[in-house]
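Let us work through a complete example step by step.
Step 1: write down the sequence.
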Amino acid sequence: MSARATEPLVSVVVPTYNNAAFVRDTLRSILSQTFTDFELIVSDHSSTDGTWELLLPFASDPRVRLLQMPRTEHPHDNWANASRSATGRYIKLVCGDDLLAPECLERQVTAMRTHPGAVMVASRRNVVTARGEVVLRSWGLPKMVGELPGRTAVRRAVRSGTNTFGEPACVLLCRAGLEAVGGWDGTHSYVLDQHTYSKVLTRGTFVGLAEPLASFRLSDSQWSHALARKQYGQVVAFHRDLAASCPDLLSRADLARGRARAKVLAYARRLAYFSLARELRTPLPPIEMPVSSPAVAVPVTGLTAE
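Step 2: predict the structure and record it as tokens.
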């Protein structure tokens, strides 16, 4: 794998864990971008389903760096491990089962350049099943297309009771802004992305793009009655913490509206998952690793196991 002569403008980072069924499509969607000045960093969280072995052939591409770290109890450890290695001015995190449209980076970089005060650009996305069928088209960013003050965008998202910005594949961040707030905030794991966006957006403006430039994949690990309760509790706790850290950002009315909507949406989401149960079932991984497979010796970076 050859080293780059100069630092790229964009770092795309992909944290993976047991994504064997989808990860090759994810990486191919990134490597097929019309915008080419980027690096791709993949950090695997000690997968047990053959994900790492599927990643190895991609290392022949000079844009790609593969990292591996010991398994920990916190997914955001892997997000942090991937992001720490980024060198680009802008950073995009893509989970190991999501997809980018070919023009995603081109459109989002153009938006950043057109709006010098922006610290975050997001697009709408398609929501797809485990097998790739689209169930929601051009989803997200209600009344949030165009440039907005970052604090206004945060307030609208809180009042909506959900992450209206979208999952990380929809988002491009200024890396300096992400690092200035301490990186990905895993205090509330379910809203890890929105919590971090909100902190970054206190430092600049937000730009929303109307076209869907990413696809978020629903899976069978995302729905249960217990998870619905946990999600609601974490959303409320995140809102409370955000209000405490930025006292003039959210009113009591904002918090009350966000709390009410979060409760309704948590259970509406659960019902939707149950109705799509068959379509959400993760297909078998494309390879089966024999029990006696030799271990691959690779550099281990990042955190030690807890």
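Step 3: interpret the result. Strands lie at 10-16, 38-44, 64-68, 90-93, 99-100, 118-128, 134-139, 146-149, 171-174, 205-217.
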